[in-house]
Amino acid sequence: MGIIIAILIFSFIIFFHELGHFTLAKLNHIDVQEFSVGMGPAIFTKEHRGTLYAVRILPIGGYCAMGEDDEATDSPSNFNNKSVWARISVIAAGPVFNFILAFACAVVLVAMAGYDQPVAGGVDEGYPAYEAGMRPGDRIVEMNGKNIHLFKEVQVYNQFHQGETVELTYERDGRQYTADVTPLFDEELQYYRLGITSSGYTAATPLTALEYGAYEVKYWIDTTLLSLKMLVTGRVGVDQLSGPVGIVDVVDDTYQEAKTYGTATVAVNMLNIAILISANLGVMNLLPLPALDGGRLVFLAVEAVRRKRIPPEKEGYVHFAGIVLLMALMVVVMFNDIQRVFF
């Protein structure tokens, strides 16, 4: 069951991404040749106003075909004949819809489970935070100039900066205090700790569900960007990346652990994973790499500046090279996933 849920979550997120392209294409009066849910042979098709709507047998994503590679048509509603800003909006809509979906899931998650304010529930004596003057009830507002809205941001910052001194700003009774804090190595946990524990989750109102839902999405976007930075700088290796196989395995493991606590716990965990994947997909697609939406946006931005389109065949060569490199990376990531899961 966990594997089925994983496939459905992943498929819906990709479908929603393609729905973004489709929606903005329609709003810009661009011809959409086909909008498909799923991949593989079609099990249901219906044509409506020049668009073929299809449901395909494999529930893995979908696609929106707008004739971007068709250079022969003179139709004013062809994608290539629209203004550069119309095309930018269509291409950017996919990642933007991923962020919208992540936000919607985050609001539901916070409404169900509450939110973890960056308030110290406990401050361990003998650890740096206590020595710096922090006490239970203090609210952490900044770490090295980065605004903090969730307690998990404190944990992740410490995780990605193990042993590094951090300028910590916390608030008590309306006054702010700042101290330089160097995490202390915990011999038992084999981990550098500040010595702060969470105050737990706070029940959300409709307004705080919206506010902290936005903070949840921001948290996952920041975490994704920080992970990419560590990958580029060599602090993490390609062997630590996970692809679809790894994601399915994580979802299945999470489901198996959560189901013993009831349906609500399963729902909360699945929503959390959906936020992670959707926000991650939005960020990844905006990277200025060939074949991704971000790469296409780079070409469109250049066209907007120079007021002249880059020759389609040259752009096509760049995107093709990008696809080849991405496929090679996917093979490596899938190989790593299979090794971790099955061996």
UniProtKB/TrEMBL annotation:
Cofactor (UniProt): Zn(2+)
E.C. number(s) listed in UniProt: 3.4.24.-
A Pfam family annotated for this UniProt entry: Peptidase_M50
Protein name: Zinc metalloprotease
Domain spans labelled PDZ: 106-174
Cleaved signal peptide residues: none
Keywords noted in UniProt: Hydrolase, Membrane, Metal-binding, Metalloprotease, Protease, Transmembrane, Transmembrane helix, Zinc
Entry GO CC: membrane
InterPro entries according to UniProt: PDZ, PDZ_6, PDZ_sf, Pept_M50_Zn, Peptidase_M50
Protein's GO biological process: proteolysis
Keyword Zinc recorded: yes
Keyword match Lyase: no
Primary location class: membrane
Residue spans crossing the bilayer: 84-111, 316-335
Membrane topology: Multi-pass membrane protein
UniProt subcellular location: Membrane
Family the UniProt entry places it in: Belongs to the peptidase M50B family.
A GO molecular-function descriptor: metalloendopeptidase activity
